[in-house]
Design a protein that fits this description.
The complex is a heterotrimer.
Chain A lengths: L25 E5 L11 E7 L2 E8 L7 H7 L6 H6 L6 H16 L5 H29 L4 H21 L8 E2 L2 E2 L7 H24 L2 H7 L7 H6 L5 H5 L6 H4 L25 H25 L19 E9 L2 E9 L7 E5 L1 H6 L2 H4 L5 H11 L3 H5 L1
Antiparallel strand pairs in A: 1-2, 2-3, 4-5, 6-7, 7-8
Chain B lengths: L1 H8 L4 H32 L16 H11 L10 H18 L17 H9 L1 H12 L3 H32 L4 H7 L15 H16 L11 H4 L9 H26 L14 H23 L7 H28 L1
Helix pairs in contact in B: 1-2, 2-3, 2-12, 3-11, 4-5, 4-6, 4-11, 6-7, 7-9, 7-13, 9-11, 9-13, 11-12
Chain C lengths: L2 H12 L3 E5 L7 E4 L4 H10 L7 E9 L4 E9 L6 E9 L4 E3 L8 H12 L2 E3 L27 E2 L2 E2 L3
Parallel strand pairs in C: 2-5, 6-7
Antiparallel strand pairs in C: 1-2, 3-4, 4-5, 8-9
The chains are: A alpha+beta, B mainly alpha, C alpha/beta.
Chain lengths: 391, 339, 159
């Protein structure tokens, strides 16, 4: 038998009476009721003191049978309110994802004005969603104030949405082939006003949180996700870009009218630590907000003045027999809808590839050996919405 | 004060009861006010208003309403908890804090007990809080509370060292542990305050003390024992009703205690900054409390600005940064005194 | 690479494991493969330098309602930016499909979901537990013939 060298770490502690103490790992349930799991995620942690030995995520506490519901609908349009409720922080993006998929199946081309309004809405939604992600991330590492600053700005975006469709959270705004309403008259001015208002606020957030020494200490070098691992695990969105992969579906697999806009794909560069750490994932979101404002400014400038937003909405949706997989870039990553049509008026099968679901599955891989406080930072940096994970 | 009370009440034990009750009579309204202030300070830092309705002017009676609510709440003791320790813990925490007030000189005429070992007593007694916190965390029979208690014990014990070393460098200069004498030595204009002596060494000592005191009272960025986003609420997760109120009260009282000692040792305690102008026993109370409140405000300011350190980073700061600096500072002050 | 070229290359390599190629399917063309080969095909697709399908976009389970269940793989190559859809059909009586978890880690949770919702067993999957439903749930909800259980731990399920 090879002799193992006894080190300070491996030797069990000895009491004053000479007996050795037995230490063992502890199983700790983080969630489903825990302030930092962003909903009802349960992480089963095996901990050695404060160090995490193993993590098993348990999901499904918010499973609302979206896919089963979709099959029971009597119309393709009826799925949209359910799609809203998946990622309740980015309902517009969910609507768009579904609409794009069904339109691809039907082969509909929507009017240009509709495309512009969709892009405007979705980019506003991206900013709103990232604001929550960044704000709650600050909260996770103990900074309370940035959270409320972010909410203050998000509130203005919700006001714009409310002005447009009456709802502040679940919009049912983007329909297959069109929109539920046209924009209100003052919307464009108000939206431009917001862009002007918002630009300095990003700097404020950076000064307060992003470049805070303690914040960097808490997030840099933590939860490093190498690019190959991220790709193999199917990570997408800010999670993948945080790992330094230059990939954005708006660029790489364009849909809607994104090719017409100028914007940079935000990529993590590892300024504060290693490429792919929590800080990078965080900062990719900040950069994306800047780019979203850029897209918004162009879209608000170029949007066609006239146009019926419902002209392309089909009276009756009866797609041909077949299936379609369409993907869009939601704030959390690649949102895919796989829809099978059997030629009837309701979908035969809808499967959602939800970005947060896939991104979450990488957690056990990147959190071994970190501390409980880091676990909170890692979960926060993945930016999950349990409504979307569980569907 | 003691003489005055003896004159009124005669030479018996009631004198001491009254003397002891004075800090208590201060702690309660102070905690109510501080909680309200914390809400207001945080709210205004965050573009909000905070409580605005309860009681009329800026929700001034919000905390009173909260206390009334807490008193009415059911006092839950978890079935799996160690009942004796669970019930005892809030009292131990509170007693540790309250006892520390005995040596704090509120005014030239009032200090609970004018003992020569004042500062030493303060440092020793305020550590009793650790025992209470450990009791609370252990007896709750909750893993998260246990984590909070363990972190808290490790943190308070390690930050005691740089904190005390920093205080020691001041003690070397003044040559006494009696807090009332320290105050007497800083009489006159504000440049007589300790913070401006032997520049910059006392100033460094003050910075070290202030950081260590933040850690000792579990305030951000060192609030890891109660880190609500990690440990939910740490050692007081399982407490409800008055027991929770007591823990809460102790926390705020502790904030004031460390601020008061900081004010006394470095900022002239009850001395007026302007020599004899506005000085006297009653003005002394006002000066002392306002100096304490300034520190309280800074503590709140930091809490609502900074994120939280991780537990190992906290230990790193304590042992590898603050402690060596505090030692070096002592040596520097000592050399200055000799030369 | 076009789907046709991908199919030809696969056909050359795997022969009869490639059952069918449908270039005119609505909306995207797909390749039908044998249920006991997805992992081998996947490994080849991932590692061949000309194909390099390193990104599993989606893995869906389907009940075709003709006694067959299906698994649909949507693959994408980040480098070459081409896509392909693979389909697998298995009988409902013995729904066993080779797991691709070892090829693309993202399949881990997708396959658990397919197992949970459709009852497809993935062979050589390391951790095939239910993911969305509770561990002791009966039946597989997304099957077309699914009947919800009457009671779950004494709670009436159908409302």
């Amino acid at each position: 038998m090879p002799e193992t060298k006894e080190t300070l770490e491996t030797r069990p502690p000895v009491t004053s009476t000479g007996k050795t103490l037995r230490t063992e790992e502890m199983v700790l349930n983080m969630g489903p009721q825990h302030p930092s799991t962003h909903g009802v995620l349960r992480l089963e942690l095996v901990v050695d003191g404060e160090i995490i030995v193993d993590v098993t995520p348990h999901i499904g506490y918010l499973h609302r049978c979206f896919e089963k519901h979709s099959e029971a609908m009597t119309n393709y349009q009826q799925v949209i309110p359910y799609a809203d409720r998946m990622d309740y922080l980015a309902s517009m993006s969910m609507d768009l994802g579904y609409a794009v998929a069904v339109e691809k199946l039907l082969g509909i081309k929507v009017p240009e004005r509709v495309e512009y309004i969709r892009v405007i809405m979705v980019e506003f939604q991206r900013i709103a969603s990232h604001l929550i992600a960044l704000g709650t991330y600050g909260l996770d590492v103990g900074a309370f104030t940035p959270f409320l600053f972010c909410f203050r700005d998000r509130e203005r975006i919700l006001d714009l949405f409310e002005m447009t469709c009456g709802a502040r959270l679940l919009y049912n705004y983007i329909w297959v082939g069109g929109l539920s309403h046209d924009l209100p008259l003052t919307f464009i001015d108000k939206a431009k006003e917001f862009c002007e208002y918002f630009k300095p606020k990003i700097k404020e957030l950076n000064d307060l949180l992003s470049y805070n020494e303690i914040f960097i200490k808490r997030t840099a070098h933590i939860g490093v996700l190498p690019a190959e691992v991220a790709i193999n695990y199917g990570c997408s969105g800010p999670m993948l870009r945080g790992s330094g992969v230059n990939r954005d579906l708006r660029r790489n697999d364009p849909y809607s009218i994104y090719p017409d806009f100028e914007f940079d794909v935000a990529v993590g560069k590892g300024e504060m630590g290693t490429v792919g750490d929590c800080w990078d994932r965080y900062f990719v979101r900040v950069r994306e907000m800047v780019q979203s404002v850029r897209i918004l400014e162009q879209a608000l400038e170029r949007i066609p003045k006239e146009g019926d937003v419902q002209s392309a909405v089909p009276k009756r949706i009866r797609p041909p027999i077949g299936d379609v997989y369409a993907r869009t870039e939601s704030p959390r990553g690649e949102l895919g809808f796989y829809i099978i049509s059997d030629g009837s008026v309701s979908p035969y099968r809808v499967k959602v590839r939800s970005p947060a679901f896939v991104n979450l599955s990488v957690i056990p891989e990147i959190s071994k050996g970190c501390m409980i406080a880091d676990m909170v930072a890692i979960v926060g940096s993945v930016d999950i919405v349990l409504g979307e994970v569980d569907r | 004060m003691e003489q005055l009370l003896r004159g009124i009440l005669g030479d018996n034990v009631s004198v001491y009861i009254v003397l002891a009750a004075i800090p208590l009579a201060w702690i309660l309204p102070f905690a109510l006010f501080a909680v309200w202030l914390e809400r207001k300070v945080s709210a205004h830092m965050q573009d909000r208003l905070g409580p605005m309705r309860t009681g009329g002017w800026h929700g001034w009676s919000q905390t009173i309403a909260d206390i009334v609510k807490l008193m009415q709440k059911e006092d839950i003791v978890p079935t799996a908890a160690d009942k004796i320790l669970f019930v005892l813990a809030p009292f131990v925490v509170f007693i540790g804090t309250y006892a520390a007030f005995a040596v704090i000189p509120f005014s030239s005429e009032y200090v609970g007990s004018n003992i020569d070992l004042g500062l030493f007593y303060f440092v020793a007694v305020s550590s009793v809080v650790v025992v209470g916190i450990l009791m609370a965390g252990w007896s709750s029979n909750n893993k998260w509370s246990m984590f909070g208690a363990m972190r808290s014990a490790a943190q308070i014990v390690s930050y005691e060292i740089p904190g005390v070393l920093a205080l020691l460098s001041v003690v070397m200069i003044v040559g006494t542990l009696n807090l009332q004498e320290v105050n007497e030595l800083q009489r006159g204009w504000f440049w007589n305050w300790m913070i401006f002596q032997k520049f910059p060494f006392v100033f460094i000592a003050f910075m070290i003390y202030f950081v260590a005191s933040l850690a000792e009272v579990n305030r951000a960025p060192f609030d890891i024992p109660e880190a609500e986003s990690e440990l939910v609420a740490g050692y007081h997760t399982e407490y409800s009703g008055m027991k929770f109120a007591l823990l809460f009260l102790a926390e705020y009282a502790n904030m004031f205690a460390v601020s008061a000692v900081g004010a006394t040792l470095f900022f002239g305690g009850w001395n007026s900054p302007f020599g004899d102008f506005l000085s006297g026993p009653l003005w002394g109370v006002i000066w002392f409390i306002s100096k304490g409140m300034v520190f309280i405000f800074v503590q709140m300011w930091l809490r609502w600005t900074l994120p939280r350190l991780r537990v190992d980073q906290l230990m790193y700061v304590g042992w590898k940064v603050l402690t060596p600096f505090a030692f070096a500072n002592i040596v520097a002050v000592g050399l200055w005194m000799i030369l | 690479m076009t789907p046709q070229e991908i199919h030809d290359q696969l056909k050359l390599k795997f022969g009869d494991a490639i059952l069918e190629f449908k270039p005119d399917a609505v909306v995207d063309p797909y390749i039908q493969i044998a249920p006991d080969r997805p992992k081998d095909v996947g490994l080849y697709l991932r590692d061949d330098p000309a194909l390099e399908f390193d990104f599993l976009m989606c893995l869906s389970s389907v009940d075709y309602n003709d006694g067959n269940l299906g698994v649909v793989y949507h693959l994408n190559s980040l480098k070459h930016e081409h896509k392909i859809t693979l389909k697998v059909r298995v009988s409902k009586d013995a729904p066993e499909v080779q797991s691709v978890e070892l090829v693309w880690k993202s399949a881990n949770w997708h396959e658990r979901e397919a197992y949970d919702m459709m009852g497809i067993r993935f062979t050589a999957h390391g951790d095939l537990r239910r993911i969305l439903c509770p561990d002791d749930w009966e039946g597989h909800p997304l099957r077309k013939d699914y009947q919800v259980q009457e009671f779950y731990h004494g709670i009436k399920v159908p409302y």
